[in-house]
Design goal:
The chain is α/β, with parallel strands linked by helices and about 120 residues long. The protein is about 40% helix and about 20% strand.
């Protein structure tokens, strides 16, 4: 199983990469949604997208998730944000929303839920 992790905060990205690896994923990382989308366009194969909402660059995590959903139909998507009240992530299109801060157990629960859909 392969995961694409998109998070601009280096420490959190490192921690999440470790958690995803422990959950059995081979992890590709990107600091921005723009960089992640380039990886997708270049043919990156993955089963799970875990992305933050707010990041530097032209694209935010929601736009990335929307593009991934249209292009990689079988990919599970988990969206995380510390700004839960001010974004579009909790819509019906992305039910696997993870508000920050969260526990590793909550992350795993949401990943399992996303992978089951």
């Amino acid at each position: 199983m392969h995961a694409l992790l998109v998070e601009d905060e280096a420490l959190l990205r490192t921690m999440l990469c470790g958690s995803l690896s422990e959950f059995g994923f081979e992890v590709e990382q990107a600091e921005t949604a723009d960089a992640a989308w380039k990886m997708v366009e270049e043919g990156l194969d993955f089963d799970l997208l875990v992305t933050d909402v707010r990041m530097p660059g032209q694209m935010d995590g929601i736009e990335l998730a929307e593009r991934v959903k249209a292009r990689v139909r079988d990919a599970a998507i988990v969206i995380m944000s510390g700004f839960a009240g001010s974004n579009r992530a909790s819509t019906e299109n992305f039910p696997n929303f993870l508000p920050k801060p969260f526990t590793e157990a909550r992350l795993l629960t949401l990943i399992k839920q996303a992978m089951a859909n």
